[in-house]
C-alpha cells in the first residue's frame, strides 16, 4: 500500500507519460520502454502477431476504440510508422485478424467476418481467434486490393469459421484451422468439431486463390484444432488440440506436429490438465515458444464460452525442439506476470494500475531469435465478473537473455 501511495504521489507531480508506470494503460506514451526488464510496449488493444523473416514490419489486429471491430495494422519493430491496413473501403469492414504475410512479400492473408454476420453475439463469435462466420481473405500489403479465398456462408445455428492461417516458408502452401459447423453439448465436444486445412497458394495474373485443399483431423477424436505454423523444412504443421480418446475437456490442450505427407503425429507436450497453445518454432528451429497455464493451478468450473475466459491464466514458455516429443525438451517458463513478488508481476501492476490476472497468448520470434513479441492481456472489472479480453492488452517486445 505504501509503495502504491508513493507512486500515486509522484504521478500527481509529473506530466502524463513522464513516468510510464503513472499513466493509465490507454494513456501510456508508446513505445514505452523498460530496459531493466527488457520489455517494450509497442501498442495496445491487440490480438495475434506476425513478424515476417525479413524483420521490416510487424503485423497484427488491433481493436478500434470506436466501433470495437478489429483491423489489421502494421508497425516497425522500433514502434514507428504505424498504419491501419483494413480501414479503407477495399477490405471487409467488420472483424479482421489472424494475419500472415506471404514470404514473397506481396500479400497478406487474414480472417474476416462475413458482412451479413450481424448482431452482438455474432460479432463476439467472429473475433480473431474465435473466427466463427469468418472466411479467409488475401490483400495487398497496402490494403488497396482484397480477394476472398474461402466461401463459407453465415449460419447462426451451426456456424463454420476459420482461425490462424499460416504460410509455409516457401510460400507455396497455406495452413489454417476450420470449424466444421458441427456442434454438440457432449463432454469434450463443447467447442465443436474442427479440422486442419492445407492448400496450395496460387497467384495467377496477380490474383491469389487456394487450390487442392487437404483436410486433416489427426488423433482419436475430431475436436478443436488450432494451427500455428510450419517446421523449417515445411514438412510438418505445428498445432494445438485435444484429440485423445476419453472424456477430456476441450481446454486441456497439448501441442502436436503433423507430418502432412504421411499423417504421422508427434505429441510435443503431455499436460492434459493445463492450457497449452500458440506454439511457434524459433527461426533456427532449435526452440519452441508457447503459452501455458502450467504451474498456475488453474481450475475451470466450466469450459463453455464465455465461462472459461474468466479463468484462463497463462505465461510464456520455451522448450528445446529436440527431445520435445519425449516430454522433456528443457521446458522453462520465461514470464512471471501472475507470480506476486516477481519483478514481472510488479511491472504489470504499475502499467495497468493493478490487475489480478494476466494471459500471455500469441507470440512471434524476431528474425534473429534474440527477442520475442507477444500479446499480454490483463484482467479488469467487467460487471459482476472479472474478465480478460483483447480490449485490455499490450503488444510487448521482450529481449531474451538465454
Structural commentary:
- This protein has 3 helices and 24 strands.
- A hairpin with a 4-residue loop joins strand 1 (32-34) and strand 2 (39-44).
- The relative contact order is 0.12.
- The protein has one domain (47-370): TolB, C-terminal domain (Neuraminidase, 6 Propeller), CATH 2.120.10.
- Strands 1-2-24-23-22 form a 5-stranded antiparallel beta sheet, with no helix packed on it. A 4-stranded antiparallel beta sheet has the order 6-7-8-9, with no helix packed on it. A 4-stranded antiparallel beta sheet has the order 10-11-12-13, with no helix packed on it.
- With 402 residues, it is mainly beta.
- The longest helix has 12 residues, at 2-13.
Summarize the structure.
By secondary structure, this protein is mainly β. It has one domain (47-370): TolB, C-terminal domain (Neuraminidase), CATH 2.120.10. The chain has helices at 2-13, 120-125, 343-352, and strands at residues 32-34, 39-44, 58-63, 70-75, 83-84, 96-101, 107-113, 134-140, 146-148, 160-167, 173-180, 194-204, 207-216, 225-230, 236-241, 254-259, 265-267, 276-281, 287-292, 315-320, 332-333, 358-365, 371-382, 385-399.
Amino acid at each position: 500500500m505504501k509503495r502504491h501511495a508513493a507512486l500515486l504521489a509522484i504521478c500527481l507531480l509529473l506530466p502524463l507519460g513522464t513516468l510510464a508506470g503513472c499513466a493509465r494503460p490507454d494513456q501510456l506514451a508508446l513505445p514505452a520502454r523498460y530496459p531493466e526488464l527488457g520489455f517494450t510496449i509497442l501498442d495496445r488493444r491487440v490480438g495475434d502477431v506476425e513478424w515476417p523473416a525479413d524483420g521490416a514490419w510487424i503485423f497484427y489486429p488491433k481493436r478500434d476504440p470506436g466501433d470495437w471491430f478489429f483491423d489489421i495494422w502494421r508497425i516497425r519493430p522500433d514502434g514507428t510508422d504505424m498504419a491501419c491496413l483494413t480501414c479503407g473501403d477495399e477490405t471487409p469492414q467488420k472483424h479482421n485478424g489472424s494475419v500472415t504475410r506471404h514470404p514473397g512479400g506481396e500479400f497478406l492473408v487474414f480472417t474476416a467476418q462475413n458482412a451479413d454476420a450481424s448482431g452482438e453475439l455474432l460479432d463476439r463469435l467472429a473475433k480473431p481467434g474465435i473466427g466463427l462466420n469468418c472466411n479467409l481473405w488475401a490483400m495487398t500489403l497496402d490494403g488497396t486490393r482484397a480477394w476472398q479465398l474461402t466461401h463459407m456462408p453465415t449460419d447462426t445455428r451451426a456456424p463454420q469459421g476459420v482461425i490462424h492461417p499460416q504460410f509455409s516458408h516457401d510460400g507455396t502452401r497455406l495452413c489454417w484451422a476450420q470449424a466444421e459447423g458441427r456442434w454438440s453439448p457432449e463432454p469434450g465436444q463443447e467447442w465443436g468439431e474442427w479440422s486442419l486445412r492445407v492448400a496450395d497458394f496460387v497467384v495467377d495474373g496477380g490474383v491469389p486463390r487456394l487450390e487442392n485443399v487437404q483436410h486433416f483431423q489427426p488423433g482419436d477424436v475430431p475436436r478443436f484444432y488450432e494451427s500455428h505454423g510450419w517446421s523449417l523444412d515445411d514438412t510438418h504443421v505445428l498445432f494445438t488440440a485435444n484429440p485423445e480418446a476419453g472424456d477430456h475437456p476441450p481446454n486441456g490442450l497439448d501441442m502436436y506436429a503433423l507430418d502432412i505427407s504421411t499423417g504421422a503425429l508427434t505429441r510435443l507436450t503431455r499436460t492434459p490438465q493445463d492450457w497449452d497453445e500458440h506454439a511457434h518454432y524459433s527461426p533456427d528451429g532449435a526452440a519452441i515458444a508457447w503459452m501455458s497455464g502450467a504451474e498456475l493451478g488453474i481450475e475451470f468450473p466450466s469450459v463453455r464460452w464465455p465461462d472459461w475466459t474468466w479463468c484462463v491464466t497463462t505465461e510464456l514458455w520455451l522448450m528445446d525442439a529436440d527431445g520435445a516429443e519425449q516430454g522433456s525438451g528443457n521446458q522453462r517458463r520465461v514470464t512471471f506476470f501472475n507470480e506476486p513478488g516477481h519483478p514481472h508481476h510488479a511491472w504489470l501492476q504499475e502499467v495497468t494500475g493493478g490487475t489480478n490476472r494476466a494471459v500471455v497468448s500469441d507470440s512471434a520470434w524476431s528474425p534473429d531469435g534474440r527477442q520475442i513479441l507477444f500479446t499480454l492481456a490483463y484482467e479488469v472489472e467487467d460487471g459482476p465478473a472479472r474478465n480478460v479480453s483483447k480490449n485490455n492488452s499490450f503488444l510487448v517486445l521482450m529481449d531474451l537473455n538465454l
